[in-house]
Amino acid sequence: MEMKFDKYLKLGIGLALSATVLAACGNSDAEEIGEKSSSGVEATGELASMTEEEITLRFASWENPELQQHLAKDFMEKYPNITVELVTVDQENWNDGLTNLANTGSLPDVFWYQGNVDVPIVNGWLGDMTEQWEADPESAEVLTTLQETGYIDNERKMAAAVFYQPFTVFLDENVFNKLNVEMPSQDWKYSEMIDLMKKMTVPEQEIFGYNDYTKLVTMGPIVQADAIGEFGWNGEKFDMTTYWAESMTQQAELVRTGVHAPFFDTDEAEAAFGDRLLWAASTGRIATQLDAWWTKDLFATDEFVDKGIKWVPYPVPQGDNATTSNKPGFVDFGSVSSATEYPREAYELLKFMGWGKDGWNSRLEAYKTLTNDDGSKLFTYPSGLPLTQDQAIWDAVAAELPDNDYYKNYLEYVKEPIPLGGAVIPGFQTFLEEVYFGGEYGDVEAAIIAGTVNASDIAAELTEKLNQYYEEAMAEIF
């Protein structure tokens, strides 16, 4: 649940389907499914053979075109009888583009999709890859929190995680040195981060404790409760009366007390920085930036280095009483077309372009070797993190990152991603648009920060509405 406004960064939101999300159909069929094995299909332990016929598979994603070409080339070298055709879809109108392709009978055999999770379900775009997934030994090596995503009605595997970038907390080491404050351990707790933000707010030196793109109100309810989704989602219902209300109240307090930096394009920002359009994280006066993994590339540019800003990555801290390392992440998902003539081969292409180890070895080669026209590297650092638990892959990623303990330690704490609500839970995105950001309170977060409403006073009402949106979406889908 994120809103982005600054000019530097761009949010790419993928979507998925979750077994825990879609299991509660509330009918006799669903109850019968619950009595079967965890998947409803017995694993064969052996994938069916690939065809030896000359075939063509069409593929669409929003990744860098040169990277796609590199991956497709390596896939075709592995399977010489398969031609991969890359399909271009306008990223700004992705679902419309897929809809147009589907309407003309040309939906790609393998594709990523974005937006409201209901769209690909209702439109019937998703193919059933249960047989392949459950016979594939690599499925058991996918990051544990993502293995069960993509099951429809707890029986059919129809989508899988294909790309992952964690929420990341960046600390400006130079600001910490300036204030003579010791950097925390990366094995830190949520309350420790909050306390540090307050401590690092020094008005007499015009230093602010934090700025944000990703939000405390997203992080807190997940890490504090070992949650499997946003806003108190437990797989069947939401509960915004506990950690959501607490985190939102805390977020509002930090804004009102000046711990949070002035917001972009405001009079307060102009007074503080002399430029209302200057991104706070580029001022050298922010101790903590709540952001995303991809921003590491921006922070490595001369603009930040020349200003004496040294942003280093920290994982989102663990909840104070948490037993897991579940943490929010930006996770994109893909599927094979329900209309593909080659479901076995399409599955293999989806895996290669996403979570598969062979595909990741190809990615790592691309990250190291692809260049721009001027000879500079196309990728400063790996753009995403592995979806596999294979330590050799993670070690290879680490070797391409800056050679310091911050990056090495960071990678140890970001292996249990929780996809965002709009990506996995039917009705959630519509609730955000119609109620959370556009209902009777206007923007709920802005209203709470302004003090016109109290989070705890409206939490029960929001919970009821959110659960209603979910139930109505499920009823429509099934």
From TrEMBL:
Keywords of this entry: Signal, Transport
One Pfam family linked to the record: SBP_bac_1
SUPFAM superfamilies noted in UniProt: Periplasmic binding protein-like II (SSF53850)
Gene Ontology CC: one annotated term: cell envelope
Main location as per UniProt: other
Subcellular location: Cell envelope
Signal peptide: 1-23
Presence of the UniProt keyword Iron-sulfur in the record: no
Protein family per UniProt: Belongs to the bacterial solute-binding protein 1 family.
Protein name as catalogued: ABC transporter periplasmic subunit
Organism, scientific name: Enterococcus aquimarinus
